[in-house]
């Protein structure tokens, strides 16, 4: 990899120290440092285990062994275990605390060629855990700390395991010994009657032999046994020794749990350098630790934040010095710069270091001691250093091995010499080989900065997906923990609108009172609205004293989520009882207070909610209000009535009309087909009805459908809808969406889909063009005949991922086209899961981006609540479509047409400004295998088999100053990004004109005066396609300032939206020949389309327990390039650029996206706002 690579992959330096077996390491230490102190156990006597400390020049009151003495004790124990039958490769399970016994046991296992299996001694009293671990480890020997633990293990052992054990030894002083147990003291007494069997060549260990088995913490399941080979374990130790430049002058204060990889490797780090390890106590004792550092002048210490915080509290009442400490290593999952600062100041240790590793690969990265002191305050998250010697790190897209760019988040892949080769007993893990290296997919979300430094954001399983945006709990915890006197944990809780929302649980670290509502303020200020916890609760609220943790100190977030879920459920029941007797204003006040994380005292009922809540929060409020109060308060009404007072007055005025959306037109239940008065296009002419009937029967009879029984309604198709309906190929203007029904069988899914489609009239459509009429949509009544025509069931697939390719580009199944059905579905079982998948194709003339989610929401509701679920009525699309047709010749419509014609005059002379260049006939995104043969021959795919245009290129970038530009100048985000796109077009065409189309949602009642529209239903609730395509003609003046250009585009966008419903074909007619020869207006419009997605976050939202999960969305528009984009939060901009593979290469599109990002960053930078747009050169973009 080039040192200047922008990819998020890093490699530490070469490992200079030799990799040997633990046998060779321990033997070499005894030879090289025979008289250097290796082990100090301040809680054990100098003559414990029959070794003395007399070799020291100064008599010691506690156990103090040299490297040669430690080796001798280990060797003696190895020979006696050998005599008792233990052999090379056998496993020794050790339930031990910190002390000489652990060191001797580790040495003896290594010298014997056996495998050392340290296990948390707290597990001894848990029979199921003991049974699992001893069975998994296949233990032949057992070391217990004391008599009580030995008895507990005897009770836990199954008969099979008990019979298999060849040696059982009690390691602490014991007057009596249970039957079948040996005393370690006796085994190490040179004068005891135990035989010694010399070690032989057969006991020699090899690099690829097992050395140690470490059991993982098991936060969500039973622990897995990690196989540490001599090669991987010693490589890990050598890496740390080299990275930190350790030598024999260093001494380590060891409080770490010896059964943990952290404890094992740190002990070995100091020994391997010839240094010493000091155990202050058998279990962590802050006073004993501080006294040991003071008395022994220890140079290094390591631990997790809770250990250091306990030491800080103890130090306040002790007269001890920490001056000897050269570095304090801090590890753990809840680190923040504030915590590091507190530890440094509280202990008086200037140099604190961090690192990252796991039981399967450690250490991966670290801040070397030579770089201390390090400024950790540069980021909200804690830097964990760069890859160490022999280590490799990649940051990849989740569920992929594709490396992301530096600065982008992804999943950390661990590689290098210290990566283990798997787990015992066939336990699953994501290990793989690549580039001559072993790799492990860690499950951790991380970022590699351009400098190569690593920041870990938390476990992917703990990520919160709010409205499609990934939120790292660790990033919020880091900010919340800056508040004095608290520590926090952040979890995701299910939400029916956002999918998940963050919830903060705080715990006081002092006796002072805590302000839960201060959490909202600090997170809003430092991170933005997206990250504000939906609620903050204390552990006292939950009725617990501390966060649930594993035996190694990791917070068990899965268990914490369960505690919180029970709390919320019980509280909701109490609130529901209270709400029945509360006023609307009181209940609304409480709902908004909860959702905004603000106290009711601080949330004034006259304050505009729009200043406090984002779109997802508003939708969540609407849902919660309906659930708790029985009232419908739409998101549009929140905008119209933004204060709590106004909302309460509105709901008060609806007494007796609960759960009914105001102004929703009634849906007529008609017997038989529509008549002349039901068809707007007929204009009262009975012959038009007859022509409509004939046209329908000509296309529907082969499906077994008839006019009399099956036609529910007839809907005119608007001009751009007719463009969409043109069948230039089977997949013209198709969408393909794939979903997994996580809790439903194929039969249940089909039943739910059929029920959902009864509420989606526009997805039950055929299309035909009667004589003397524009094309029409025919809404077909739901029936068995219709559903059999629409739904196909196929044989089971292996897994959910197979849905992405299920019947892909199948000429009979993978399309929805005129004459219809315009919506088609494939249902398929997923093997071995009891669940099913849904792949549907929809023709774009019958839906848009705001109506198709209605199907998803209805399906979710039915799958969750059953066939009798209540589905709220929506505004029928026919009302809108009829209005669009009937008023297309009105004065307002004519004025709209004139506006566009004036803008577009001269298009015929602007061909040089058209981009992208057309290299082949037509504009097709995706498959066109059914097109005419001569057309296919003229459209070779530029990237061949590697073509990806239909899915496109998706990238993200941060625009940190976007909100400042919006707030200070009143611009909209789409207008700012349209400005960037206009400049990009100018750069590519070398002209001062940008020509491209943008989609307009068209969510307003067409051609009506405002006072009439106000009395109609909210157009946002129209259940069908209202969108329009509007061609932009933007002139770029290089001398015009950035602010002036954005303002001009922002103002013009307002007018484009106002005139969006102008009849497209009338515009085309009036332009006449004022277009390039051989083309027409709609052809120009299809070249390049800009589509702003205001609901991008919401569209990507899926909670873990969602009954429907998306696996694929594919747009097959007949376009050259489609820019689908939007904001994921206040700073993060996402672009998906999909394209015609016959016109563009992937590399060209990737370049275009990056250049667009460059322009967007440049124009949003405050220092450039007054500059001429001409200064934004091609090079800067």
Automatic annotation (TrEMBL):
<feature type="domain" description="Carrier">
    <location>
        <begin position="579"/>
        <end position="655"/>
    </location>
</feature>
<dbReference type="InterPro" id="IPR009081">
    <property type="entry name" value="PP-bd_ACP"/>
</dbReference>
<dbReference type="InterPro" id="IPR025110">
    <property type="entry name" value="AMP-bd_C"/>
</dbReference>
<keyword id="KW-0597">Phosphoprotein</keyword>
<dbReference type="InterPro" id="IPR001242">
    <property type="entry name" value="Condensation_dom"/>
</dbReference>
<protein>
    <submittedName>
        <fullName>Acyl-CoA ligase sidI</fullName>
    </submittedName>
</protein>
<dbReference type="Pfam" id="PF00501">
    <property type="entry name" value="AMP-binding"/>
</dbReference>
<dbReference type="InterPro" id="IPR023213">
    <property type="entry name" value="CAT-like_dom_sf"/>
</dbReference>
<dbReference type="Pfam" id="PF13193">
    <property type="entry name" value="AMP-binding_C"/>
</dbReference>
<keyword id="KW-0596">Phosphopantetheine</keyword>
<dbReference type="GO" id="GO:0043041">
    <property type="term" value="P:amino acid activation for nonribosomal peptide biosynthetic process"/>
</dbReference>
<dbReference type="GO" id="GO:0044550">
    <property type="term" value="P:secondary metabolite biosynthetic process"/>
</dbReference>
<dbReference type="Pfam" id="PF00550">
    <property type="entry name" value="PP-binding"/>
</dbReference>
<dbReference type="Pfam" id="PF00668">
    <property type="entry name" value="Condensation"/>
</dbReference>
<dbReference type="InterPro" id="IPR036736">
    <property type="entry name" value="ACP-like_sf"/>
</dbReference>
<dbReference type="InterPro" id="IPR045851">
    <property type="entry name" value="AMP-bd_C_sf"/>
</dbReference>
<dbReference type="InterPro" id="IPR000873">
    <property type="entry name" value="AMP-dep_synth/lig_dom"/>
</dbReference>
<dbReference type="InterPro" id="IPR042099">
    <property type="entry name" value="ANL_N_sf"/>
</dbReference>
<dbReference type="GO" id="GO:0016874">
    <property type="term" value="F:ligase activity"/>
</dbReference>
<dbReference type="GO" id="GO:0005737">
    <property type="term" value="C:cytoplasm"/>
</dbReference>
<dbReference type="InterPro" id="IPR020845">
    <property type="entry name" value="AMP-binding_CS"/>
</dbReference>
<dbReference type="GO" id="GO:0031177">
    <property type="term" value="F:phosphopantetheine binding"/>
</dbReference>
<keyword id="KW-0436">Ligase</keyword>
